[in-house]
Specification:
Helix content of chain A: 40-55%
Radius of gyration of chain A: 18 Å
CATH topology of the largest domain in chain A: Rossmann fold
Number of strands of chain B: 4
Keywords (chain B): Cell inner membrane, Cell membrane, Membrane, Transmembrane, Transmembrane helix
Mean pLDDT of chain A: 84
Number of helices of chain A: 10
Largest interface: A-B, 31 and 30 residues
Organism (chain B): Billgrantia campisalis
Helix content of chain B: over 70%
Strand content of chain B: 5-15%
Radius of gyration of chain B: 35 Å
Main location (chain B): membrane
Number of domains of chain B: 2
Protein name (chain B): ABC transporter permease
Number of domains of chain A: 2
Oligomer: heterodimer
Transmembrane segments (chain B): 128-146, 167-190, 202-222, 269-290, 310-330, 350-369
């Protein structure tokens, strides 16, 4: 894709602490326009905390985070809201509003922010739901009637509601069967190409990493060890990276990706 | 993107047919939709003057041209940037099937009738469920009583603290205030008859027989039944109840019994607190406003008020406590996995338990009066 294009997210010297426990220390990370950046790391290395810091849900203890050129924490409320519309977030467990059906879930930001009528917004919402591969009947279901895979898709549709420039995905394929996960990967690539998205993808799924990511950032020891193309990351001399990418699962995913090519 | 026009999108009628001009993006969606609605179904469309395009714009173009034509966009608009072509194809692909499925429509009076029927049937079903749940609770209470190893003392004590001990201040304050109000009321009415001294009897009778237990029960219904419903409802949403079942344990024994027993122990205590503090409020008003000193108040209490009034009041407490706790727990079990549902059932548990308490109290008053107790 863009290689070293325009930077959409710039994290510098980020520090995050919970009490005396330090999660991030002087963490630097860049995300470029149009790329899919995979973020990996062992459990508890602060992948989700990093995501929450970037989207402004957690105030960092030190350091700066610039999203689309602005520092969220320093913006006044209305400008912050305007900026927040330019990114979409898919939470780990979907976080769909349980009191609304799917088309209302997706239509909510459209009605609130774009001043569309309810009918127009719900029509657009149905297209978005179809775009992420949900059948038309699903639009009127409530989230508690959905399977895990459908919840993930519906949550992606809501994250895409405002045609965001940056998409944050927190373990989108966790809990999906391999076929569903593969379909999600392809969907992500299609949407990235069609909508020109930049994607921040937290994942444990090696297949997703090999089939979708342009670059991979490895979180370890409270910072980003390396953020490079997969081939470079694989070759990095680090015990965790070796175990991760050259363990049996890593090898299988790598071979599967090569076969596909 | 090759086109960098930043002006609002429009649909223009050119010399050689329709032209999509400018940005077809979300901010212009409503107006563009009206323009598209006017010319619905065109054969040709010139996309070269098109500026930025997002999903909402793509939806309109697909509606204008039809999904099949847009799927072949590469053939008739090869000059369009690759990303926009990809977007159009993706959206057209999603819109191949009709997406607007009308919800099943019902004749409104019929729907209202069906709704009424559902409510009535639901009300009946609710009482039926309550009776069933009371049965299950009693059964597991009896089977648990015989096996001291399965008594859950820790859970019981924790619930006692939450529903009993922590409720003492609010129960004491509220009954104290109501006691003072009752004394004022009595004084006002009885003064005309020159019988202000009977204010003491009024306060004592009302608090021993009715207000002590009723106020404490209503407070616990609002305070604790709602907490039970919310706790158990949230546990259900998190599949914790299923986990308890798959571990071979009984949710009724683990969650309901400690709560029910704790309530049955704490409500009589709180009733006693309520009676005492209500009469204290009455006594205070008597000594300050009616010149009946505390010593005289106590002497009248001792002389005129038989013990059975106290017992009548206290006897109702365990029954009320049982009902409040059972309703609170049952509503928690009935909650479905959504935030909305937990809220609905919490409301329902408070309303039901207060209703039940007042209904039973009225029946009990009738019964005790007929029995002459």
């Amino acid at each position: 894709m863009s290689g070293a294009g325009e930077t959409v997210i710039e994290v510098r010297d980020l520090v995050n602490r919970f009490g005396s426990h330090c999660v991030h220390e002087n963490l630097d990370l860049d995300i470029y326009r149009g790329e899919i950046l995979g973020v990996v790391g062992g459990s508890g290395t602060g992948k989700s905390v990093l995501l929450r810091s970037i989207v402004g849900l957690k105030r960092p203890d030190a350091g700066s985070i610039r999203v689309l050129g602005e520092d969220l924490q320093r913006l006044p409320a209305d400008e912050r809201s305007r900026l927040e519309r330019r990114f979409g977030v898919l939470f780990q467990r979907g976080a769909l509003f349980t009191s609304l059906n799917l088309q209302e879930n997706v239509a909510l930001p459209l009605i609130e922010h774009s001043g569309l009528t309810r009918a127009d917004a719900e029509h657009l919402a149905r297209v978005k739901l179809a775009l992420v591969g949900l059948p038309p009947q699903a639009a009127r279901l409530t989230p508690d009637a959905l399977s895990g895979g459908m919840v993930k898709r519906a949550a992606l549709a809501r994250a895409l509601a405002m045609d965001p420039e940056v998409l944050f995905l927190d373990e989108p394929t966790a809990g999906l069967d391999p076929i569903g996960a593969g379909a999600f990967d392809r969907l992500l690539l299609t949407l990235r190409d069609a909508l020109g998205l930049s994607v921040f993808l937290v994942t444990h799924d090696l297949d997703t990493l090999y089939s979708t990511c342009d670059r991979v950032a490895v979180l370890s020891d409270r910072r980003v060890l390396v953020a490079e193309r997969l081939a470079v990351v694989e070759a990095t001399d680090n015990e965790w990276i070796r175990d991760y990418f050259h363990g049996p699962r890593g090898r299988a995913a790598s071979q599967a990706a090569q076969r596909k090519e | 993107m090759t086109h960098t026009a930043t002006h609002a999108g429009t649909l223009e009628q050119g010399d050689e047919g329709l032209r999509a001009v400018g940005d077809w993006t979300l901010p212009h969606h409503s107006r563009l939709r009206r323009e598209v609605a006017k010319v619905r179904g065109t054969e040709t469309l010139d996309l070269t003057p098109l500026g930025r395009l997002d999903t909402s714009g793509a939806v309109l173009l697909v509606e204008l041209l039809g999904a099949q034509r847009v799927l072949r966009v590469g053939d008739w608009a090869p000059a369009l940037p690759a990303e926009q072509q990809a977007l159009l194809v993706a959206v057209a692909d999603a819109m191949r099937e009709p997406l607007d499925i009308a919800p099943p429509s019902v004749f409104p009076p019929l729907a209202a009738l069906a709704d009424l029927g559902q409510r009535v049937a639901g009300l009946g079903h609710q009482q039926f469920q309550l009776i069933g749940f009371i049965g299950v609770t009693l059964a597991s209470l009896v089977s648990g009583l015989l096996r001291p190893r399965r008594w859950r003392i820790t859970a019981l004590v924790a619930q006692l603290q939450q529903s009993g001990l922590n409720a003492i201040p609010i129960v004491a304050l509220l009954t104290f205030l109501v006691g003072a109000v009752v004394a004022f009321l009595g004084a006002t009415v009885l003064r005309d008859f020159g019988a202000t001294i009977y204010t003491v009897n009024l306060v004592a009778y009302s608090f021993l027989r009715e207000f002590g237990v009723l106020l404490a029960a209503i407070l616990l219904a609002g305070r604790t039944a709602s907490a039970f419903t919310a706790q158990i409802g949230a546990m259900k949403a998190n599949e914790e109840l299923d986990a308890i079942r798959t571990l071979g344990l009984s949710p009724v024994e683990l969650l309901v019994l400690p709560r029910v027993l704790a309530m049955m122990i704490s409500l009589p205590i709180l009733t006693l607190v309520g009676m005492l503090s209500g009469m204290l409020g009455g006594a205070l008003v008597c000594s300050l406003a009616l010149e009946i000193p505390l010593a005289q108040f106590l002497a009248i209490l001792q002389r005129d008020i038989p013990l059975n009034h106290f017992l009548v009041g206290l006897a109702k407490a365990p029954l009320f406590a049982f009902l409040i706790a059972v309703i609170g727990c049952l509503e928690g079990f009935k909650a479905a996995g959504s935030a909305q549902s937990v809220g609905e059932h919490t409301t329902s548990s408070v309303v039901q338990s207060i209703f039940m308490v007042i209904l039973l109290d009225a029946l009990a008053a009738l019964f005790f009066m007929e029995m002459g107790w």
